[in-house]
């Protein structure tokens, strides 16, 4: 049996309306919601997850803005999609890419063929691209897609640059 996966990357309040929020993130929420509602395959979710010591971490020293602190309001998924994702498998990650997600999909491949993987979410230039490259490196023969209408970067320029890199790494940007 073949399975398709939609991976929703970090659609959390802090990235949309919170401490690292932006108009770009807010602009994709309805597209993301619609995609989730009509998706026919399996849906997986990642959540950026930090702790109170975030500012003492390497990331915190380079980006000294507290965000996605576990169990805070900003760590939660945006309300427009939260209900649709409440029974989905969630991968909490304390860095840009999720190794746990890769291991989960490797286990799936022991039982099923993966027809395709599609990524949506934020930030295109940080967590979306990091997870896309991890997926491509581990599953080079599985078609990998990034829906640009359901992604937002930390800036418009960063979003566009990330899409170019994704294309150059043979990830299908649609």
What does this structure look like?
There is one protein chain. By secondary structure, this protein is an alpha/beta fold. The protein has one domain (2-173): Isochorismatase-like (Rossmann fold). Helices cover 41% and strands 24% of the residues. It has helices at residues 13-16, 23-38, 58-62, 79-85, 99-109, 124-138, 156-168, and strands at residues 2-9, 42-48, 89-93, 113-122, 144-152, 172-173. Strands 3-2-1-4-5-6 form a six-stranded parallel sheet. Helix 7 (156-168) links the parallel strand 5 (144-152) and strand 6. Helix 2 runs parallel beside helix 4 (79-85) and helix 6 (124-138) runs parallel beside helix 7.
Secondary structure elements and pairings:
Layout: E1 2-9, H1 13-16, H2 23-38, E2 42-48, H3 58-62, H4 79-85, E3 89-93, H5 99-109, E4 113-122, H6 124-138, E5 144-152, H7 156-168, E6 172-173
Parallel strand pairs: 1-2, 1-4, 2-3, 4-5, 5-6
What portion of the residues fall into strands of 2 or more residues? 15-25%
Number of helical runs? 7
CATH architecture: 3-Layer(aba) Sandwich
* Low-pLDDT stretches: none
CATH fourth-tier homologous superfamily: Isochorismatase-like
């Amino acid at each position: 049996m073949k399975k398709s996966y939609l991976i929703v990357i970090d659609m959390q309040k802090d990235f949309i309306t919170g401490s690292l929020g932006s108009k770009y993130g807010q602009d994709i929420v309805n597209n993301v919601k619609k995609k989730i509602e009509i998706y026919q395959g399996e849906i997986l979710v990642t959540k950026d997850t930090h702790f109170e010591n975030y500012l003492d971490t390497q990331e915190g020293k380079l980006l000294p803005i507290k965000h996605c602190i576990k169990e805070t309001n900003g760590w939660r998924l945006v309300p427009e999609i939260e209900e649709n994702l409440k029974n989905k498998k969630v991968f909490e990650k304390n860095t840009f890419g999720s190794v746990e997600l890769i291991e989960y999909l490797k286990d799936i491949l022991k039982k099923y063929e993966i027809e395709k993987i599609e990524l949506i979410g934020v930030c295109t230039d940080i967590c979306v691209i990091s997870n896309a490259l991890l997926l491509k490196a581990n599953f080079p023969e599985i078609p990998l897609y990034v829906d640009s209408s359901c992604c937002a970067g930390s800036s418009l320029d960063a979003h566009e640059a990330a899409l170019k890199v994704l294309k150059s790494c043979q990830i299908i940007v649609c």
